[in-house]
């Protein structure tokens, strides 16, 4: 396996990881900003007020986007496993 193939495979893996993690991270970021703004406006400093909505948002996004995420990861792993014989040369 030459260094170029390793770098290409690593780049594809990082891109797939970023693409799969983006919906959950984006939803948690937006909910966190909204909750922080709410806490700043009302001066309520409760730790669970920040944690619970983020957790619920992450679960909701995983329920909605989960099948796509799983399909994307399975397709990437399938491509890598099918390409292994060509890398062994």
Automatic annotation (TrEMBL):
<dbReference type="GO" id="GO:0009306">
    <property type="term" value="P:protein secretion"/>
</dbReference>
<keyword id="KW-0472">Membrane</keyword>
<comment type="similarity">
    <text>Belongs to the FliQ/MopD/SpaQ family.</text>
</comment>
<dbReference type="GO" id="GO:0005886">
    <property type="term" value="C:plasma membrane"/>
</dbReference>
<keyword id="KW-0969">Cilium</keyword>
<dbReference type="GO" id="GO:0044780">
    <property type="term" value="P:bacterial-type flagellum assembly"/>
</dbReference>
<keyword id="KW-0975">Bacterial flagellum</keyword>
<dbReference type="InterPro" id="IPR006305">
    <property type="entry name" value="FliQ"/>
</dbReference>
<feature type="transmembrane region" description="Helical">
    <location>
        <begin position="55"/>
        <end position="77"/>
    </location>
</feature>
<keyword id="KW-1003">Cell membrane</keyword>
<keyword id="KW-0282">Flagellum</keyword>
<dbReference type="GO" id="GO:0009425">
    <property type="term" value="C:bacterial-type flagellum basal body"/>
</dbReference>
<comment type="function">
    <text>Role in flagellar biosynthesis.</text>
</comment>
<dbReference type="InterPro" id="IPR002191">
    <property type="entry name" value="Bac_export_3"/>
</dbReference>
<keyword id="KW-0966">Cell projection</keyword>
<dbReference type="Pfam" id="PF01313">
    <property type="entry name" value="Bac_export_3"/>
</dbReference>
<keyword id="KW-1133">Transmembrane helix</keyword>
<keyword id="KW-0812">Transmembrane</keyword>
<protein>
    <recommendedName>
        <fullName>Flagellar biosynthetic protein FliQ</fullName>
    </recommendedName>
</protein>
<feature type="transmembrane region" description="Helical">
    <location>
        <begin position="12"/>
        <end position="35"/>
    </location>
</feature>
